Amino acid sequence: MKVHLENIDMRIKRKLRVIIWKQWKKIKKRYTTLRKLGVNHYNAFMTANCRRGLYFIGNTWVLKEAISKERLNKRGLVNALDHYLKVHIITN
């Protein structure tokens, strides 16, 4: 069950990163927002100007660092695996 929940969490986080990336429509907005989130100049510039697909960019380490699990949890995302482990106490 843990493996399935980890897979679901991974897909949800990736999809949310894609949605956030799509909201930043212009290259300048993508660059400035990545810089505000703590990404250095070179990586923000290269990621903002990348012409690869949305799901490729949603899975890059730059976007994973900028929009991390902690930031998503802070904004209200409930992690399915953490919730499952909190509710179901596993006994040996």
User: In this structure, how is the largest beta sheet organized?
Assistant: none
- Helix proportion range: over 70%
SS-based structural class?
Answer: mainly alpha
Number of E-type strands: 0
H and E order: HHHHHHH
| Total number of helices | 7
Mean pLDDT: 91
The total number of structural domains is 1
| Strand coverage percent | under 5%
Q: Termini separation (Å)? A: 16 Å
What is the overall shape? Answer: elongated
Poorly predicted segments: none
Cα Rg? 15 Å
Describe the structure in your own words:
By secondary structure, the protein is mainly alpha-helical. Helices cover 71% and strands 0% of the residues.
Question: Keyphrases for this structure?
Answer:
single chain; 92 residues; mainly alpha
Task: Write the SSE topology.
Layout: H1 2-23, H2 27-36, H3 41-48, H4 54-58, H5 61-66, H6 69-74, H7 80-87
Helix pairs in contact: 2-3
Briefly say what this structure is.
The chain has seven helices and no strands.
